[in-house]
Amino acid sequence: MANRKLGDARKGDALLVPIVAVLLGFVVGSVVVMITGKSPLVMFNAMLQGLTGLNVARGSFNPRYIGELVIQAMPIILTALCFGFAARTGLFNIGAEGQLMIGSLAATTVALLVKAPAFIHIPLVLVAGMAAGALWGAIPGYLKARFNVHEVVVTIMLNYVALHMNNLLILNVFGSFDKVKTAPFPQSALLKDPWLESITNGSRLNWGFIPVLIAIVVYWFVIEKTTFGYGLRAVGYNKDAAKYAGMKVNRNIVLSMMIAGAFAGLAGAVITTGTFNFGRALSAAEGYGFDGMAVALVGSNQALGILLAGLLFGMLKAAGPLMQSNGIPKEIGGIIQASIVLFVAMKYGLERLIAMLRLRRDKASSLPVTGEEAGV
Amino acid sequence: MAFIIEMLNIVKDFPGIRANDDVTLQVEKGSIHALLGENGAGKSTLMSILFGLYSPDGGSIRIRGETVRISDPNVANELGIGMVHQHFKLVHNFTVTENIILGLEPKKGPVLDIKSAAVKVAELSKLYGLDVDPFAKIEDISVSMQQRVEILKMLYRDAEILIFDEPTAVLTPQEIHELMGIMRRLVEEGKTILLITHKLKEIKAVADTCTVLRRGKLIGTVPVAGTSEASMAEMMVGREVSFSVDKGPSHPGEVVLDIKDLCVKNAKGLLGVKNLSLSVREGEILGLCGIDGNGQTELIQALTGLAPIESGSVTVRGVDITDLPVKQRLDSGLGHIPEDRHRHGLVLDFRLDENMVIHSYGSEPFSRHGILDYGAIRKNAERLIDEFDVRSGRGADTKARSMSGGNQQKAILAREIDRSPIAFVIAQPTRGLDVGAIEYIHKRIVAERDKGKAILLASLELDEILDVSDRIAVIYGGEIVGVVDADKTDENELGLMMSGSVRKAG
Questions:
Q1: What distance in Å separates residue B110's CA from the closest CA in chain A?
Q2: How many domains does chain B have?
Q3: Please, which residues have CB within 8 angstroms of residue A6's CB and are 6 or more apart in sequence?
Q4: Is the per-residue pLDDT at A367 higher than 60?
Q5: Residue B505 has pLDDT above 80, yes or no
Q6: Confidence band (pLDDT; 50, 70, 90) for A105?
Q7: Range of the domain at B110
Q8: Across the interface, which of B69, B328, B372 has its CB nearest the CB of A226?
Q9: d(Cα A239, Cα A259) in Å, to the nearest integer?
Q10: Residue-wise DSSP of A11-79
């Protein structure tokens, strides 16, 4: 049909929708702030401060906010890479949360049980987290490939299994310190660094950002530049065509879930040895998985998009306390985040809107519309 | 003259494209009016406007002389306009009568009065010579009977104007003949018919007037009696078209593709192909014809590795490929142009250059050590685009989805011919394509034959089978009911074999 061609009418459209969605999200946030009787300017000032550390209203600068922004963005970028990688292969991986917890559990295990110098111990911790996440991702991948069990069902269930397995092992095997956490990790296993903390005025910034940046580059390279990524994308877009072309569709599904799981597992390791220095028992999932899905959605599953969307959402989270200290409910950040996701999900509607506006503009000069038909 | 339908100066825009550009269509009451045009010419858009599915951006519609605004299909129904869709909209486990009254159920008090409805259906069926059993279940009757149910549905609703959207695509020659008879009968009883088609032969056989569209524009309206097929084709395409496929005699050599006692299960788990044996020799085109759903799809998928083989064997130049995975079949010299180009042939969201290496991206020069070389991939695509005249908005950069059907098919053809297979399985190569593209694709297929390839050509278009093949195998109920030489047979003989009433040893 003729209107199928809508999708690639203009080259910049792929970027336009997320940008419009983000702007609309801020509009919604501003309206809500106004309803609570505050000025949206206070909100934007808090956000700018969360993003740059600059407080324009007071003319002060505090690098701690930048550190906190990065800390907030790191895990959700990784879970977004997790969701995005599977999505590019046509899989709906809701299991980032569980893969993250298992990664964190493995990182805890290696951090506590292995004795090694830091330059071995840290990589070992990260690799353990990735391997465990990959293994956890392999389960739904295999079930999908072998028995056509839907990955959504399996990953949701495995999230609960991961949560309770984590708690069981942390509390019973490693010996709980105070019923919620293990003994502290040795210094050699930690991504934490007093120097990074000091230059950011006491933020929780740690070396975790380096594996995150590497992960983003790896994600981009594997998907866009390798034959493996080509095969994954082909399977994701059109499984039948991939099969027709002789690709190993089932193998690709399993591998894709494993790599996705590795990204989430890395997130678990980075949180555990970066933000904290002990293994934690959790009362419930912390929402990194769902935040990651939102980031991947806004970032269109592209490496650069995920980085930017991750920073944006990290900023919204980091700005929460700042807003609260200015009398704006910190939940506004969540409202903006949710609105942005909602607007991105309305991608088709936004695209149509943009196309219609363009058409109207183009048409205004060329086609006279008679009064009777104009309203049709 | 009394026009029952007048669509005047219709304009319809879709984002980025003007589907109807100042189109005027005037249909006389009691006539069969054909609407001719290639795919994307705007026929369907125009009819959708008439049926209330789209609203026009300009122009006006008059029915029986009165200006109307058809805002949705219910308004169209009230105006007596009915549409027989290309894909039937029937409930399969309902009876004929139940389907016909759906949405318009007659009641006796609170109870459904199916009996009186059935009586009315039977009367209508008799009046128009449709010969439909009101109590038969849809799933038990043939496709052509289902189509008649669709027609009855319109008649039951007292439609006066009947739109037929490509009605013959799913019928055998005999059934097409019968449908033509029904259409004439409908007109005799005072109905008006709008026939959407791209088949000139049918227009010649049944229509009174023909309106031709090209790229959304009205080219002209001509009386069918005084216009030749060739000049209608020229109006449709915009240049002279040759209908006959230009090909010399075949020089068949050794058997290349050999199928022995093949059994394949269909989606229902039953045998869709039963003990089928066929052999295709080098330098010949073996046409496979049959009515849709008689095992062609199962056969092709089994040959190309997309469906498992139950029993029997397939060899390509002596190499047994029966149990090989797709990749190794392709490496053994099998080529495959799939039946469904959107489902199997292309990754629609990939660019054209990426689609061109869908088989070969893993080998040099397109990749080295697992890293893609986009330079080589691009160069390959540009070479094929050039050689096969594949037209697209942004060349190798174009998303396959945004290309026309003809150019998508040319791209697949280019890719597959370039692999230079020795045995070529080609299914439905011209489905839904316009005359120009069909001409080109036929020429290329014959050229492959002349290069000594063994070609199995499966098609639902009888003309295509007759024009392009050297020998023709007819499939019915999953079995080959006969193999005949293309120049010693005709539509009638094939039609009878396709319906299973005649068998012929070949």
A1: 39
A2: 3
A3: A351, A352, A355, B14, B15, B16
A4: no
A5: no
A6: very high
A7: 3-237
A8: B372
A9: 19
A10: TTHHHHHHHHHHHHHHHHHHHHHHHTT--HHHHHHHHHHHHHSEETTTTEE-THHHHHHHHHHHHHHHH
Which of A230, A255, A301, A363 should be substituted to probe chain B, the one whose Cβ sees the most B Cβ atoms within 10 Å? A230
Which residues constitute the domain of residue A134? 12-351
| Domain identity same for B117 and B200 | yes
Q: Which of A220, A221, A228, A238 to mutate to test the interface with B (most CBs of B within 10 A)?
A: A238
Listed residue (B427, B304, B273) closest to A243, CA to CA: B304
pLDDT (average), residues B10-20: 83
The pLDDT confidence band at residue A214, using thresholds 50, 70 and 90, is very high
Chain B nearest C-alpha distance from A358 (Å): 9
Per-residue pLDDT for A3 more than 50? Answer: no
Contacts across the A-B interface (CB distance below 8 Å): 117
Q: How confident is the model at residue A101 (pLDDT cuts 50, 70, 90)?
A: very high
Condensed to tens digits (0 to 9), the pLDDT of residues B291-306 reads 888 899 999 999 999 9
What are the structure tokens assigned to A351, written together?
């695209």
Q: Encode A176-201: b = buried (16+ Cβ within 10 Å), e = exposed.
A: beeeebbeebeebbbbbeeebbeebe
Chain A residues touching B361 at Cβ < 8 A? 227, 230-231
Whether residue A178 lies within 8 A of chain B, CB to CB, comes out as no
Residue A300 DSSP label: T
Inter-chain contact A363–B69, Cβ cutoff 8 Å?
A: no
Assigned domain for B340 exists: no
State mean pLDDT over A86-93: 93
Rounded to a whole number of angstroms, the distance from the CA of A289 to the nearest CA of chain B is 27
Residues 6+ apart with CB under 8 A from A303: A81, A216, A217, A219, A220, A223, A224
Same domain as B504, residue B366: no
Substitution target in B7, B8, B14 with the highest count of A β-carbons within 10 Å is B14
CA distance A122 to chain B (A): 29
Tell me which of A11 and B91 has the higher pLDDT. B91
**Across residues B227-247, what is the average pLDDT?**
81
What pLDDT does residue A322 have? 84
B449 & B474 share domain: yes
Which residues of chain B have a CB within 8 Å of the CB of A237? 347-350
CATH code for position B63: 3.40.50.300
Per-residue confidence at A200, pLDDT binned at 50, 70, 90?
A: confident
By C-alpha distance, the chain B residue nearest A235 is: B347
How many residues does the structure list for chain B? Answer: 506
Which of A347-361, B120-134, B176-190, B439-453 has the lowest average pLDDT?
A347-361
Residues of B in contact with A7 (CB under 8 A): 399, 401-402
Q: Cis ω on the peptide bond leading into residue B325 (within 30° of 0)?
A: no
Distance from CA of A217 to the nearest CA of B (A): 15
Q: State the pLDDT confidence band at A359, using cuts at 50, 70 and 90.
A: confident
- Residue A372: pLDDT band by 50, 70, 90 thresholds? very low
User: Which domain CATH number covers A283?
Assistant: 1.10.3470
**Residue B155 has which token pair?**
């008649």
In this structure, the dihedral spanned by the alpha carbons of residues A188, A189, A195 and A199, taken in order and rounded to 10 degrees, is 180
Residue B207 CA to residue A91 CA, distance in Å, equals: 51
Q: Name the average pLDDT for chain B.
A: 89
Nearest CA in chain A to B71: A376
Q: Is the ipTM of this complex over 0.90?
A: no
Q: Helices marked H in B357-422 — which ranges? A: 374-388, 405-419
Does the pLDDT at position A1 exceed 50? no
Q: Structurally, how many domains does chain A consist of?
A: 1
